[in-house]
Design a protein that fits this description.
single chain, three-stranded antiparallel β-sheet, 2 helices, 22% helix, elongated, Usg, Protein usg
């Protein structure tokens, strides 16, 4: 019997999840003049980014580093595509 249930990853895409990359620049207390970088790739929902916000809230309360800045790159995985037709060739 063939299963007609969609792949869970595809179901997540349909519900709005897509590839997200966040770069967090931060300072450690013992080296305040040294700017460090943390790069993280994950799936999240734009433009709210709930997973990223949970992560940053955790960072602010549990990590001793001070966040300097956060850059977010987001790419929708499902989007309309352009369709182009080439010239038609008929076999005789």
């Amino acid at each position: 019997m063939i299963s007609r249930v969609a792949d869970p990853a595809f179901q997540k895409m349909l519900s709005g999840f897509s590839a997200t990359t966040a770069e967090v620049l931060y300072h450690m207390p013992d080296h305040p003049d040294f700017l460090q970088s943390f790069l993280w790739q994950f799936e999240d929902i734009a433009p709210q980014f709930p997973r990223l916000h949970r992560f940053l809230d955790h960072w602010r309360t549990e990590v001793e580093a001070t966040i300097h800045s956060v850059s977010v790159m987001h790419q929708g995985l499902i989007r309309p595509r352009e369709l182009r037709f080439g010239s038609e060739h008929r076999l005789q």
